[in-house]
Amino acid sequence: MTTVNSVSDADLEHQVTPVELFFDLVLVFAITQVTKLLSHDPTWHGVLRGMLVLAALWWAWTTYASLSSAIDVDEGGVRLAMLCSTAAMLIVALAVPGAFGDEAVLFGVAYLLVRFIHLALSAIAGRGDPDRHSALVRFAPTAILGPSLLLLAGVSHGNIRIAVWMAALAIDYFGPVLIGLGRGWRIGPGHFAERHGLIILIALGESIVAIGTGAGFDLTTGVITASVLGIVVVTALWWLYFDVAAIFARRRLEQASGLDQARLARDAYNYLHLPMVAGIVLFALGLKITIGDVGAELATVPAVALSGGAALYLLGHTAFLLRSTGRIFRRRTIGAVVLLALIPAATTVPALAALALVSAVPSLVVAYEVVRHREHRLQVRHPELTD
Fold first, then answer.
1. 172 neighbors 78 (Cβ within 8 angstroms)
2. In 3D, which of 99, 13, 27 has the Cα closest to residue 61?
3. Nearest-CA neighbor of 266 among 316, 320, 313?
4. Distance (Å, rounded) from C-alpha 240 to C-alpha 270?
């Protein structure tokens, strides 16, 4: 979260800038590195480590998303600092595969630098604004302690390292909740929602990358079929978010104000977008392994990643909509439950058949909503045509 001035939302709104997108490119690479980390150790222990790294990357990114929503980071010395943070984040991304091994200290040092630059930028942005300065002072301790523990984890070993990672992330994630939000915490809602939508798009792109790396150079009929089924799932997940859900949530965020808006931004975007991104990354892992050997039966972890990853996305998506709109989207919830129920089957049938079953669920949810609620969709997407 990031502090902002006592100005109107209209004053805070601005276009997503090239330097923000440049920063996001590094996150694209970092997410790819997380998938690489998972694929090299497709065990429960490997999944735990991969999700911990993803959570750290996500929190670093979302702090910058909040900062760039409050101020223009594409001018003067602020732009230079953003470029420095981009370079530091690249080192973090490079160290991801070894974050629990030989590159643990490098990861911790680079990650701490990324977070320190964010605090410095926030301090610069808050000069002359007592509310903003007060909010930064309140939240700085957790923003320093959490990353510092990750550096400490680099010199730890085994289960102690895992425990320190969990403690560090708990401090980062629960700090804003325990301390509470006060005056000086605001965002540009349209810009903020757009940045998070773009990151969902980036994560979905990782699934497309997984299709390419899993397919390799031997394009058999099975590999082509699996690739098509994979893009069907990715398309359905994209549709479920961008067709109407993102519009619903953005409008609700724009309509809110003050602390209600800050809490909505924190809960629906900072917190509840993470399980969606995690679900996409897990699905990409399962998809990559599936395409690698379409005729084999999936082991337990890849099967859970394939079907459970898509389910986690839908559960996070449903929670995001519930927090944003106060409504439970039943069909999407049912789709998540069905995907979880498919996990045992995914371990007993050929990988291609498991992917076919998984692809059917979100596709049917999309098809039902398009047919059953076509008039409502039109009203949401094109209100000017229904006035």
1. no
2. 27
3. 320
4. 19
Tokens 């994209």 correspond to what residue? 238
DSSP 271: I
Length of the chain: 387
Q: Can you give the pLDDT at residue 369? A: 86
Return the amino acid letter for 304.
V
Q: What pLDDT score was predicted for residue 88?
A: 95
Residue type, 243: D
Predicted pLDDT at 244: 86
Please state, in angstroms and as integers, the Cα–Cα distance from residue 90 to each residue in 24, 150, 169, following that order. 10, 17, 20
Residue 6 has pLDDT above 50, yes or no: no
Q: Is the separation of the CB atoms in 354 and 346 below 8 Å?
A: yes
What residue ranges in 79-238 does DSSP mark as E strands?
none
Q: Which residue has the tokens 């643990």?
A: 104
Longest dimension (CA), the chain: 64
CA distance 366 to 240: 7
Q: What is the pTM of this model?
A: 0.90
Copy the structure tokens of residue 301: 């972890």
**Of 129 and 240, more confident:** 240
- In the predicted structure, residue 154 carries a pLDDT above the cut 60: yes
Which positions ≥6 away from 230 have C-beta within 8 Å? 207, 210, 211, 287, 290, 291, 355, 359
Q: How many angstroms separate the CA atoms of 99 and 308, rounded?
A: 25
Residue 102 and residue 127 in contact, taking contact as beta carbons nearer than 8 Å:
no
Helices 18-40 + 44-70 axis angle, to 10: 170
Higher-confidence residue of 132 and 79: namely 79
| Region label for 47, one of left (φ > 0), alpha (ψ between -120 and 50) or beta (otherwise) | alpha
Q: What is the mean pLDDT of residues 326-352?
A: 94
- How many CB atoms sit inside 10 A of residue 198's CB? 16
User: What domains does the chain contain, in order, with CATH numbers?
Assistant: 1-187 (no CATH), 189-387 (1.20.1410)
Report residue 265 as tokens. Answer: 């931004």
Beta-sheet strands, E only, within 197-291: none
